[in-house]
Every structure is written in structure tokens, then in C-alpha cells.
Amino acid sequence: MHCTRVRGIAVAVSMAAIALLLAPMAVAQDEKPTWSIEFVRPAIDEVVTGEITASVKVYPPSVDPTHLSIGFGDAGHVPMARVPGTHYWRATVDTTRVLNGPAALHVYGMAPGVANRRTATLVDVRVDNPLECYFGNIHSHTYYSDGCMLPSDAYAYARDVAGMDFFCLTDHLEMVSEAEWRDIRETAWRMNEDGKFAAFPGLEWTKRTGHANLLDPPGRIWPPDMESLFEALPDADVVAMFNHPGDGTGDWGWKGLPYHEGADENMHLMEVRSDQELQAYILALNNGWHIAAAGTDDTHSPDWGTRGAWTGMWLPALTSDNVISALGRRHCYSTNDRNCRVLFRVNGEMMGTVIDDPVRQVVLEIDIDDPDPGDKTSKIEIYQDGEMIDMPVFGQEKVRHTMTLRPEKGEHYFFVRVGQEDANVLTTAPVWVTVE
Ligand SMILES: [Zn+2]
Ligand SMILES: [Zn+2]
Predict the structure, then answer these.
(1) Closest to 381 in 3D by CA, of 394, 396, 398
(2) What does the radius of gyration of the chain's CA atoms come to, in whole angstroms?
(3) Whose atoms come closest to the Cα of 142: which ligand?
(4) Cα separation, 87 vs 80, whole angstroms
């Protein structure tokens, strides 16, 4: 009885709603039409690679838009061109402007003489491009805090002398003035050049609790205590890093690295450059943090990017957007070797991935390629849940190693450390899985 009565009211309400909707539409048709854009290509969920020709049509065909543009979100738009004599518009879109995986292709349009001057649409696609390995440094200082020289010197040195692919300066934010912060940002964006050098600004939050790098932060003023910093990170949408954690238990080292659910959305990285920092990495991972190992030199001298520690990552193209996105997805590794490429995947997913769908088995794939003759891999340490479970030994520059595991039910994480004959070490981001 009660149900029927409720349903009756619902029907009455929706009839009223339809009547309300119909009335203004009828009026609008007499005056100006509304217009819309519809995707022709690519299709929903289509796999896209390289440069694609995207095509849309506008409705009603009589509408004459002044401008249509297309792009992947904030990765930049390109103008579309009308196919002469039709209501179809086209553009060539570079899909390497975003990382591989699901992405949304947006179209924005402007038209005169219509009820809605602006309109937009999108299509979900899956981007799948070949990847290249890039190397950079995301922690260092200038005179603006306690280092040497100026941001323009640091970015130029990192690019021209160190040959970095990407570079982010991170002066202590407590020491940086507003004018200096403006110079840091302007310098970074002026030095940034797609395909050649990905430059972006950063700051180091510097407290006794620990130091944290904030990559491309929206401002230089941040709360002074850890809890408030962690709470401020998600709104600012910043990629952040636990700096020089020691073994993760002391002052300046994040004291036990207690898990913080909100901050786990933004603390994506930790400096892992020694056996001691490996302990902090494992402590944090066991506490539940989803972080990747990064290599940096934290230099305070005029030698940016040449001090024996770097971050390596795999990208479809070298742009600062791609570098920041890849750091945010933890697709990286720490390396003491300047150019050794390490690709670690689990069940086909890139290092740094949290695999949501439960799995039956775990297939680890490790590809190592050092372009220097004689720079040989000596061993791979394979870690499951913080414990080394295997250590195969090698003696080549180029190594491919796979391993299939059937861990017990529950959540697990895996990462690898590569040892080279010259004692250089490379530590990857983990992949997290749930075994059913
Ligand atoms: Zn520091
Ligand atoms: Zn520092």
C-alpha cells in the first residue's frame, strides 16, 4: 500500500518535471537553437597510439561555430578545422601528451546565434604508446635557500652540463621570498621545452619532523606541522616526496612514518639511495604508504644533476606534464647509474601501479638495459612485502628476468633492487596486488 502511494507521487512529480522541461524547450526552438558536438572518431574506449585524426560533427548542421578545439584535459588543446561544406570538424591529436592508460579526449566549441554559446563533449579512450626511459633530478638548492647561485644557473647546468631530461629545483620554502618564488617559477617554465627538457618548479618543506619536496606547488606558504601539511596536500593536488628519511625512525626522518590516509593520495615518492633509506622505504610500505623510490642529489653546490643519484622513468614523450603525472603515478625508480634503464612490471602493469582487480597469480617481469659496455647487472633482489624472496645473479649489460608466484590470499606488494658489478644500485617502485 505504502509503496504504491509513493510510486504514484513519483509518477506525478516526473510528469510535472517533463511538463516544465518541455515548456522552455518549445520557446527556445522558436528563438535560438541549442547546439551540441558529437564524436565520430575515436570511438568510445578505442585504443589510440601516436598522432590520430579526431573527428566530430555539430548539431544542428546549420550551426556555424567560430571555434572548436580538442585535447586531453589540461595537457593543452589544438584547434579543429571544418571539413569544407560539411558539419564535420577534424584535427590531428598527439596522444603522447598523456600517459598510457584511460584518458578523456575533450572538445570545446564556441558558436554565435545559438542559445548556448559554449558547448563541450568528451570521449573516453585508452592510450597505448611506446615508452622511452628518461633521467632527472627532483631535489636541489640555490642561493634562494642554502645553496649556490640562481635558478637560471641551476636549470641551465642541469640541462647543458648534467644532460638531465627533467629537473625540478626545490629550495627550502621557509627561506624563499615571494619575489624569489616568482623567479623560480618563471625560470622553470621558461627553460621547459617539450621533447628536450622538462623543467618545473618545486619547494622543500623543512621541519624537524622531516623534509618533504612539493613538486609544482600552487604556492610557497604551507602549514608548519606534519598533520596540517598532510591535510593541505589533497586540495592543492601536489605530488610530494619524503626526503632523506634516514632509516625512517628519527628526527628529520619522519619518525616511524605513520600512515595517513589523506596524505597517501599525494605523498607518492621517497628518496631511496642507500641501504639505510631502504629500511625507511620498507617501513613506510609496510605501514601502508603507496610510494615509489626516487633518486636525487639534494645538492647545495653548483653541480646540479651530477652527484651520483637520479630518478629514472618511462614516458611516451618528454613533457613536464608527463613527468609530473608519472611521478604522481609512481612510474619511476631510484638509480646510482646515470643511464641504466630498468623496467619492472607485474602482470603487465608498470611499476607504481595498484592493481585493483584481484589476481590468481603474480608474474614479475624485469628488463634491464645499460647502454655502457661493461656496466653489467650482477644481481636482482626481489622483494615481497618488504622481505627479499629471491636473488638471481647475472653478468650482462642486458638482462630479462621473469618470475611467476602464487602468493597466499590477501594484499601484497613487490619491488626489485638491481645491483651492478660496479656496486651501483637501482630500486624500483612497487606494484601492489590483491590475491584472491
Ligand atoms: Zn632536506
Ligand atoms: Zn634539500
Answers:
(1) 394
(2) 26
(3) 2
(4) 12
pTM: 0.91
Residues in the chain: 436
CA dist., res. 227 & res. 59, Å (int) = 51
Q: What angle do CA 328, 329, 331 make, to 5 degrees?
A: 115
For 190, the enclosing helix (H) or strand (E) is: helix 178-191
Specify whether domain 36-127 bears CATH 3.40.50.300. Answer: no
The full set of domain ranges for the chain reads 36-127, 132-435
* Ion ligand 1: protein residues whose beta carbon lies under 5 Å: 211, 243
In the CATH scheme, what architecture does the domain 132-435 have? Alpha-Beta Barrel (3.20)
Nearest ligand to the CA atom of 243: 1
Distance 420 CA to ligand 1 centre (A): 28
- 101-110 vs 267-271, strand pairing mode: unpaired
Closest of 405, 434, 428, 399 to residue 415, by C-alpha? 428
112-to-34, 37, 38, 87, 189 alpha-carbon distances in Å = 11, 14, 18, 15, 35
Query: Which residue type sits at 38?
Result: E
Residue 26: Cβ within 10 Å count? 8
Q: Evaluate the CA torsion angle 123, 126, 130, 134 in order and state its sign.
A: positive
**Per-residue pLDDT tens over the stretch 248-294:** 999 888 999 999 999 999 999 999 999 999 999 999 999 999 999 99
Q: Which ligand is nearest to the CA of 254?
A: 1
Residues 434, 355: contact at Cβ < 8 Å? yes
